[in-house]
Design goal:
By secondary structure, the protein is an alpha/beta fold. The chain has 15 helices and 14 strands. The protein has helices spanning about 65-75, 110-120, 130-140, 160-165, 170-175, 185-200, 250-260, 265-275, 275-280, 285-295, 300-325, 335-340, 340-345, 360-365, 390-400, and strands at about 1-10, 15-20, 25-30, 40-45, 55-60, 90-95, 105-110, 145-150, 205-215, 215-225, 225-230, 330, 370, 380-385. An 8-stranded mixed β-sheet has the order 5-4-3-2-1-6-8-7, sandwiched between helices. Strands 11-10-9-12-14-13 form a 6-stranded mixed β-sheet, sandwiched between helices. The relative contact order is 0.11. The structure holds adenosine-5'-diphosphate (ADP). Adenosine-5'-diphosphate (ADP) binds near residues 216, 286 and 335.
Length: about 400
């Protein structure tokens, strides 16, 4: 079975075509700057194999339809392609950011599902409209091919009310759906499944803290394979310190800024989402640049790094309290997979709670899923590369089988 996975942004389209028999990636790519006169298309055939069939080109792509047509042409082209025609695509799996309370699982897309995704637009005004365009485009270009929506929020729908409700007037929840939803669910679900497998335990018997540290970051308490709490909130602004997002702050700061600086709500939104986090503290949001600056003695970069590690550690400690027994802490995503310093700072001082890193294994440049906990560590510490596209393809396959 071949499954095409699509992740649409407002001006981008990412795709991976999987042969689920391996599963193997047959082709993958990215179109950026859709809508501009020089959109950029990068395509790889069978990634990892000698660059043959790879291509990068710039051309005008007025909309997502044009981008998707260009992708189909490439996938079926004799030189860059991997299939004869689109009839070899059995299903399309779509990443959809917000499923609100409506979607607890991945689902086959029909008119009602499209309406329900549309109803979630106020909760994710930047992301859901782009995801809807991806769905509409794929429906038009792959008529009769099942489309499956896989939601970033669905994994967290198992959180209990005491974890997802804010202590606000209750009618704000009942009338306006104000609550914690959490995001990165596809990634947390994927690494939690892999961790249980590596531990040799059934997911139902496994308690984990999954730590997704990328540009956007979130930490999740997973009890018996289910999300019971997570650091992102109603929007992806809450929780730990991110590249440019503040994470948790005292909400009263917003009123103080409005009063003292006369900022509008839009300006404050911009500050919290785009000018805060690591960037707010040291001017840089890429962790590699921060490490370079730290090595050159940059005091602000050091402070940003320490704050980042400290906030992660506070969340990990609080989720240990939530879970009681923890089998493993699992690091993933760009920083979690590649940065031993961030992992060390996030676990520092947790020895009394049974968490101990093996410093050599933590520093090792090894890639792939691995255990970096000390031999005697009661709680295992793991690094597991995330693979959200594969998880979307798997979920899509499961939805098709359950039909
Ligand atoms: P996104 O949330 O956009 O998917 P990623 O998961 O790709 O982000 O993570 C991006 C972050 O990972 C950046 O801060 C980047 O600096 C960091 N990163 C990537 N490789 C390394 C590395 N080798 N060492 C430290 N940080 C890294």
């Amino acid at each position: 079975m071949n499954i095409l996975v699509i992740n649409t942004g407002s001006s981008s389209l990412k795709y991976q075509l999987f042969d689920m028999a391996g599963p193997t990636v047959l082709a993958s790519g990215l179109v950026e700057r859709i809508g501009e006169s020089r959109a950029k298309l990068m395509h790889k055939k069978r990634p990892g194999q000698d660059g043959e069939g790879a291509l990068t080109r710039e051309e005008a792509m007025p909309d997502h339809g044009a981008a998707m047509r260009a992708v189909i042409t490439l996938l079926t082209d004799p030189e860059h392609g991997v299939i004869k025609d689109t009839s070899e695509i059995n299903a399309v799996g779509h990443r959809v950011v917000h499923g609100g309370e409506h979607f607890h699982a991945s689902t086959l897309v029909d008119a009602d599902v499209m309406d329900a995704i549309r109803a979630c637009v106020p909760l994710a005004p930047l992301h859901n409209p782009a995801n809807l365009i991806g769905l509409e485009t794929a429906q038009a270009l792959f008529p009769g091919v099942p489309q499956v929506a896989v939601f970033d929020t669905a994994f967290h729908q198992t959180m209990p009310p005491k974890a997802y409700l804010y202590a606000l007037p209750y009618e704000l929840y009942t009338e306006l759906n104000v609550r914690r939803y959490g995001f990165h669910g596809t990634s947390h679900r994927f690494v939690a499944g892999e961790a249980a497998r590596m531990l040799g335990k059934a997911p139902e018997d496994t308690n984990l803290i999954t730590v997704h540290l990328g540009n956007g970051s979130s930490i999740c308490a997973v009890k018996g394979g289910k999300s019971v709490d997570t650091s992102l909130g109603m929007t992806p602004l809450a929780g730990v310190i991110m590249g440019t997002r503040s994470g948790d702050i005292d909400p009263a700061i917003i009123f103080y800024l409005a009063e003292r600086k006369g900022y509008s709500l839009g300006e404050i939104d911009d500050i919290l989402n785009k000018k805060s986090g690591l960037k707010g503290i040291c001017g840089m949001n890429d962790m590699r640049d921060i490490h370079k600056a730290v090595a050159e003695g940059d005091v602000q970069a050091r402070l940003a790094l320490d704050m980042f590690g400290y906030r992660n550690r506070k969340y990990i400690g609080s989720y240990m309290a939530v879970l009681g027994r923890v089998d493993a802490i699992v690091f993933t995503a760009g920083i979690g997979e590649n940065d031993p310093v961030s992992r060390e700072l996030s676990c520092r001082g947790l020895t009394a709670l049974g968490v101990e890193l093996d410093h050599e294994r933590n520093q090792s440049p090894e890639r792939g899923a691995r255990d970096i906990g000390a031999a005697g560590s009661q709680v295992r510490v793991m690094v597991i590369p995330t693979n959200e596209e594969l998880e979307i393809a798997r979920q899509t396959g499961e939805v098709l089988r359950a039909r």
